Amino acid sequence: MVLLLATQHCRIWAPIQVACSRLGIAPATLVRASRFPAGAACGPTLDAAGFLGVGRLAALARFDAARGAALDAATASWAEELPAAQARALRASAGRALGRLAAQALHLDALVDRLEPPVLITFAELNEWARVVPEVARRHGIPTLDLPHAEAADPVSLVGLAYDRIGAFGPRAARVLRSAGIPPGSIVEIGAPHFDRLMSLPPATPAEPRRLVFTSQFLAGWMTAETKAIIVRAAITAAAAIAPVTLVIRRHPLENDRVLDELLAQARPAGVTVEVAPDEPIESSLAGAWLLLTGWSNTVFEAAILGIPSVVINPTGEPDPMGFAEGGLAVGASDDETAASAVARLADRAARDAAAGEARRRLEEFIGPLDGHAADRAAALIAELVSGAR
What we know:
16 helices; six-stranded parallel sheet; alpha/beta; 12% strand; Rossmann fold; seven-stranded parallel sheet
């Protein structure tokens, strides 16, 4: 059973399913754990919210009834250590999170009861499902696997993950997981299955007139609304440095704020034409692009694979959250001026090609072997877990 949290997870799973079929593993049951449009990318799926039953509803009601008193006791010291308003806000947030966790656990428990899968697979490290999945699976005695869908970068948020196996892109991600206290025996470097197909494509040839691609991100962690607004404005300003130019905007599948829309509605520099790309594979937008602009989106990987340099804009005053600039995978910028300077410098074809070549050389450290067989390694890992479960 594969628990999906976004349409992108369906695209990542597709080549792994093909590789699993070659090993004789039966097709997985795909389950949507959040409200996203399945569409053609996913095919037939089940909705996790559709499984509960009267018994588990009663259990959820009992939990809700007991939650308030238990939470008050558990957080009593917060009122002494924090300002009163902050303590109340944190307690309320914790209460809401516990309610969601309980509901998610009971939904997943009902699904596992119904489907009896030999292995439970998901793509979650940083959200509540990352805590629910291993616990529910352990109750049923089945192994769990977290497959990589993005670069592991923040060890603090990964502490305590209890999956039986965690797939990692490459050496950098594996080091981050180990620094978070994940047992080394649980970490398997498999590469990035959703990049296998891109590995076989020739480098993109930049087209005229010039097109730049900006990949937006959803609000989480370092990416606050204020930070995002600075990044978007810097990308538009930077594009003007090589006008006339088309700036293609790629929304994130999980993006649900208004920051991007509000800024795009404002007047923009002369010579900059803005287009919003449809929800299609990123390589469709990158085809013929001169370069990629972003905050710290993982689309830097796709760009590097296709021979397109990236400029990452980090206005936080802290180190690059993903280490892209530090690791030589992208050119770093922090504001309008530095972003415009970077884009102007990369307008020279020789400088552009040199930056793209450097990014390609650094890729393996980030995403593992560039051999196009990451899906095969993921399938072999699944086969191992299925065999152990039997």
